[in-house]
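User: Please fill in residues for this 169-position structure.
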């Protein structure tokens, strides 16, 4: 098993250095072992920092008065992009969330004077990590589409942020 993991990491790091989108690799092994790895294949350097968040933090969707509001049920460790977006993380229950680029992504239009609250795309993964202990729990809760995902341009660029979300435990 260790040998397979080492080979996967080496291939991931050295062979696939230049690609057009984020890449995710999943290995399903014996005894229900699942290993995942991902890259942030991007033409520009993305400043990344690791943050540790305790449970009990009061948060909001950061899109104005109609932002979704919550208090984190779980602590997490995350990788941030531009010190403003959660791109990857793990909560204390073992739930993992990753956002990956997907140019074809489209989101419903957010009405800041409407009925449904909004959530910035920068906090999408963090919302999942803060609120859910399992993939099934997250999927079940998100089926009702409790908020509108609100996207914007990547800081300092003319590129509109189009992501999809991966969660695994």
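Assistant: Residues filled in for all 169 positions:
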């Amino acid at each position: 098993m260790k040998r397979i993991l080492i080979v996967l990491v080496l291939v991931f790091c050295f062979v696939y250095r230049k690609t057009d989108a984020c890449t995710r690799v999943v290995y399903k092994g014996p005894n229900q072992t699942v290993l995942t790895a991902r890259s942030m294949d991007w033409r520009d350097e993305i400043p990344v920092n690791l943050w540790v968040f305790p449970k009990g933090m009061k948060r909001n969707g950061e899109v104005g008065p109609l932002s979704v509001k919550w208090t984190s049920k779980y602590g997490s460790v995350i990788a941030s992009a531009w010190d403003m977006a959660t791109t990857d993380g793990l909560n204390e229950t073992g739930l993992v969330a990753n956002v990956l680029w997907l140019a074809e992504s489209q989101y419903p239009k957010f009405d800041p004077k409407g009925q449904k609250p909004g959530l910035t795309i920068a906090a999408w993964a963090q919302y999942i990590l803060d609120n859910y202990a399992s993939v099934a729990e997250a999927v079940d809760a998100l089926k009702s589409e409790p908020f509108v995902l609100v996207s914007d341009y990547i800081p300092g660029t003319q590129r509109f942020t189009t992501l999809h979300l991966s969660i695994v435990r």
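For context: DSSP finds three helices and eleven strands in the chain.
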